Amino acid sequence: MSGSTTTSGRSGGSRRPTLTGRLARFGFADITRSAGLLADPDLALLLDPGARSVDGPEAGAADPAGVVDDELLAAFGQAADPDLALLQVVRLAGALRPDVEARGALADLARGTLRPGPARDRLLAVLGASVALGDDVVRRPALLEVVADPAPGTGVAAGDVRVELLRAVGADPDAAVPVADESGPERVDALRRAYRERILRIAATDLTVTDPLTRMPAVGAALADLAAAALEGALAVARAELDDHGAGVRLAVVGMGKCGARELNYVSDVDVIYVVEPAEGFDEGYATTVGARLATSLARVCSGTSGEPALWQVDAALRPEGKQGPLVRTLASHVAYYERWAKTWEFQALLKARTVTGDRELGRAYEEAIAPFVWSAAGRENFVEDSQAMRRRVEAHVPAAEADRQLKLGKGGLRDVEFTVQLLQLVHGRSDDSIRSRSTLTALAELAAAGYVGREHAARLGVCYRFLRSLEHRIQLFRLRRTHLLPTADDELRRLARSLGMRTEGAAGLTERWRATRREVRGLHEEIFYRPLLPVVAQLSPDEVSLAPEAAKARFAAIGYRDPAGAMRHVTALIEGVSRRAAIQRQLLPVMLGWFAEGADPDAGLLAFRTLSETLGTTHWYLQLLRDSGSAAQRLAHLLANSRYMADALGRSPESVRWLAGDADLVPRGIERLAAETDAILTRADEVEPATVSLRAVRRRELARTGAAELLGVVDPVDAARSISDAADVVLAGALRVAEFVARDELGYDAPDPSSAPARLLVVAMGRLGGREMGYGSDADVMFVHDPAPGAAGDAAQAYALAAATRLRQLLSAVGPEPALPVDADLRPEGRNGPLVRSLASYTEYYERWSSVWEAQALLRARPVAGDVAGLGEAFTRVVDERRYPAGGLDLAHVREVRRIKARVEAERLPRGVEASRHLKLGRGGVSDVEWTVQLLQLQHAHEVPALRTTSTVDALDAAVDVGLVDPDDAATLGEAWHLASRLRSALVLWSGRTTGTTVDVLPHDRFALNGLARVLDLPGVDTGAELEEHYLRTARRARTVMERVFYGED
């Protein structure tokens, strides 16, 4: 029959599509079977009362298309599983055949329900999505009245549902203690039938909404209210089993978990806790004994064997002591347990506690008694860590075979969302009662409104949670069985997809969305649930969290703030008002105030934070980053409380706070990336001044990045110095391009064309820049070299080179919106008395005829960095190599001269009034001692030891050890002193924010400053300023001893 065709009665004899084609078009999958079902005589009789009602060979001879037209087939096609919906209708038709033949009321009801309209939509939606509910309708066709009734299953008052189920067991809903009119299986079955009728009504509403995710919370609430009503009915039946109906016991049934939160599944264990008290005239022993009997009977009514399907298991395992503890307890017994023995997870579970059945007054007393335990639980030792560990244990217990299908317990599942929300509630809800909702979605919205979760994160988590719960509902609804596993069969996935409105996407689309949802939930869970702020907030007292003024000022004084009143003014300015910004600050500050106090100057740190917050507070990302990042807030507090330099740097470039979220953005960019950035700036530039400002900004940002990285331990001091030097290199190179452009323009050459210039230029790095050992306050020591272009006059080349060099120094040294880089050319031949720029030939002649040994020593740091590095730079390097690496090394006279100059520098250049032992550069055992020692070895031996031909002090010292010129222990002593002194010089800049002045190279006497330096350096075993002072002086003395022996030849 499925292959037959019929012709319509219209003229022309046009052919109708085959039945199989029509079924396929309407979404049927098992077409052969469904085509056969359409020929079922019972179906024909139900749909067409005029059809023959006799059995026999001709009973099904009528064309099914005459009974089931395309309109009805299309209606079946809207079901989650059209084949299943058709099968269930055929079964229903068979069950109704006697009534159909008798022309009874049920037959009319069924026929009317299958006519176009909302009732048919509800019926076919249920039959196509739930085998279990379809079986109910087939077994009890009177349930069609429930489906035909347009009253929704959600949004119904809980009291109305309670009345419905109490009346089902013959109990008086208005009685103070409802009792069923009789005990026994009849009332148990009546309760279960009433329950299934209400489930059918809820499912019919749920399955016919346009957007299941929007309706999901109402479905969960309706199911929880139904469970509460069923417990009430079961308790009424349980009381009927007792002669005195348990009149002497007050029993409250407290819903836990999803029941307590009004977000129950279709099939789930209902978690409860029982609380009893004796009625007047009865004792506690009676109450606990009879209460236990009532609780046991209540559970049996819900889940024991009977003529109707069980509802669900009543699980009291969340009670004190779990399954090992008594089934019921008095209120005082509960309180005593929670005071003394309860574990962390129990308080998290109590977050959902809600009286659902029984003595409401007693239930309210229980809720009031446990609330203080719940909202102070986060203050318990290791509360957050224990909660996080519990989540990991739950994940670990998921069987490997189920891990990728587990909706509830697995990674990216429902528990990730629920644990995240509950932890935030318990930590922050101590001082904020606006986030104490039991419902996951409501609590999530409250957390977002109060600023504890980003609004975007909350919205994404909310959508994911609704999808997971809706998927869970659909899976359980099919057979009304408790399961949390996503099926694997394509037909089951297809049915689920269609039931969720994903008809086009199908099984593959549903699977992909499930995976994407898991990834998103897991990512958000890990980002929020493991915030470092949470365990710190949890350990603060309620007064500390609330930032109450008097308590806060007392805390400031106790943890090291010098001006508690001033600190409180800053805090008040940040948290006052009802804005979201103020709300997030109220979360951050209780923790960050402690982090500031761990720094050297908490008052300065707080002030800098206020300034930065007032600058950035209106941006969408700043406070969100501090709240949600795993490291940004603590790193920011560390920088601001330990470094005025970084406070100023972040104030100049507030967007740099973004770097603190991870290590990647703190790692120095490297010279290639910096060069590419400066090249892009100059390529786009049209004007000199903006281009120069942009170049200087590149350096300023890189110094800030490096400073933050060094303070936070992302880079070591040597790499930090190289990063600072790289920034100077690229800015010099960029500035030279600008300066040459200006010089060409001013001197009448073709400004855009570098080849029109009369000379090639070179900038040679000297000193600490040449050695790539610059500090945050270092000048750029350089020399300028030029070489006339072919055919160019010497005076024209000199004039051009001088103009470019002069302009370069002006560009980088002038006062402006970005920090200057002073360019010092005093190490050139003849010093300040000599010309600023010389030709290569002039340098060659000077070094051959007039140079002194100190100039050869200075040339040990010479390194071409800008201009014609490949050509002129190589030529210049060949010239100076002959001077700095003299063949045969230094003769004795030159060695004596170097030593004499060193002694003179010590005697004359040390600032007046500064102790030699405390000057980090020129003092005894300081940077200069080590560098002169290494440089003397280079002058003496680099001609025969290629590894000594380096501008780096550290590398040269290592090379000297490798070839036996320095004892390894001596080298270690010298290296330790050089590193420590160099770090102290940088630390002084980072701590004080000053890059110039007579004190930037002097170890201070001031205890406060010394303590600050100790915090900045964070050396092992050095915790205080006094310890740092002692450590440096001792290290310098040892280095001086080695230096005198190696450099001066003294024993």
From TrEMBL:
<dbReference type="InterPro" id="IPR023057">
    <property type="entry name" value="GlnE"/>
</dbReference>
<keyword id="KW-0808">Transferase</keyword>
<dbReference type="GO" id="GO:0008882">
    <property type="term" value="F:[glutamate-ammonia-ligase] adenylyltransferase activity"/>
</dbReference>
<feature type="domain" description="PII-uridylyltransferase/Glutamine-synthetase adenylyltransferase">
    <location>
        <begin position="903"/>
        <end position="1047"/>
    </location>
</feature>
<feature type="domain" description="PII-uridylyltransferase/Glutamine-synthetase adenylyltransferase">
    <location>
        <begin position="389"/>
        <end position="529"/>
    </location>
</feature>
<keyword id="KW-0547">Nucleotide-binding</keyword>
<comment type="function">
    <text>Involved in the regulation of glutamine synthetase GlnA, a key enzyme in the process to assimilate ammonia. When cellular nitrogen levels are high, the C-terminal adenylyl transferase (AT) inactivates GlnA by covalent transfer of an adenylyl group from ATP to specific tyrosine residue of GlnA, thus reducing its activity. Conversely, when nitrogen levels are low, the N-terminal adenylyl removase (AR) activates GlnA by removing the adenylyl group by phosphorolysis, increasing its activity.</text>
</comment>
<dbReference type="InterPro" id="IPR005190">
    <property type="entry name" value="GlnE_rpt_dom"/>
</dbReference>
<dbReference type="GO" id="GO:0005524">
    <property type="term" value="F:ATP binding"/>
</dbReference>
<keyword id="KW-0460">Magnesium</keyword>
<feature type="domain" description="Glutamate-ammonia ligase adenylyltransferase repeated">
    <location>
        <begin position="634"/>
        <end position="869"/>
    </location>
</feature>
<dbReference type="GO" id="GO:0005829">
    <property type="term" value="C:cytosol"/>
</dbReference>
<feature type="domain" description="Glutamate-ammonia ligase adenylyltransferase repeated">
    <location>
        <begin position="122"/>
        <end position="367"/>
    </location>
</feature>
<dbReference type="Pfam" id="PF03710">
    <property type="entry name" value="GlnE"/>
</dbReference>
<keyword id="KW-0548">Nucleotidyltransferase</keyword>
<dbReference type="GO" id="GO:0047388">
    <property type="term" value="F:[glutamine synthetase]-adenylyl-L-tyrosine phosphorylase activity"/>
</dbReference>
<dbReference type="GO" id="GO:0000287">
    <property type="term" value="F:magnesium ion binding"/>
</dbReference>
<keyword id="KW-0511">Multifunctional enzyme</keyword>
<comment type="similarity">
    <text>Belongs to the GlnE family.</text>
</comment>
<dbReference type="InterPro" id="IPR043519">
    <property type="entry name" value="NT_sf"/>
</dbReference>
<feature type="region of interest" description="Adenylyl removase">
    <location>
        <begin position="1"/>
        <end position="533"/>
    </location>
</feature>
<dbReference type="GO" id="GO:0000820">
    <property type="term" value="P:regulation of glutamine family amino acid metabolic process"/>
</dbReference>
<dbReference type="Pfam" id="PF08335">
    <property type="entry name" value="GlnD_UR_UTase"/>
</dbReference>
<dbReference type="InterPro" id="IPR013546">
    <property type="entry name" value="PII_UdlTrfase/GS_AdlTrfase"/>
</dbReference>
<feature type="region of interest" description="Adenylyl transferase">
    <location>
        <begin position="541"/>
        <end position="1051"/>
    </location>
</feature>
<keyword id="KW-0067">ATP-binding</keyword>
<protein>
    <recommendedName>
        <fullName>Bifunctional glutamine synthetase adenylyltransferase/adenylyl-removing enzyme</fullName>
        <ecNumber>2.7.7.89</ecNumber>
        <ecNumber>2.7.7.42</ecNumber>
    </recommendedName>
</protein>
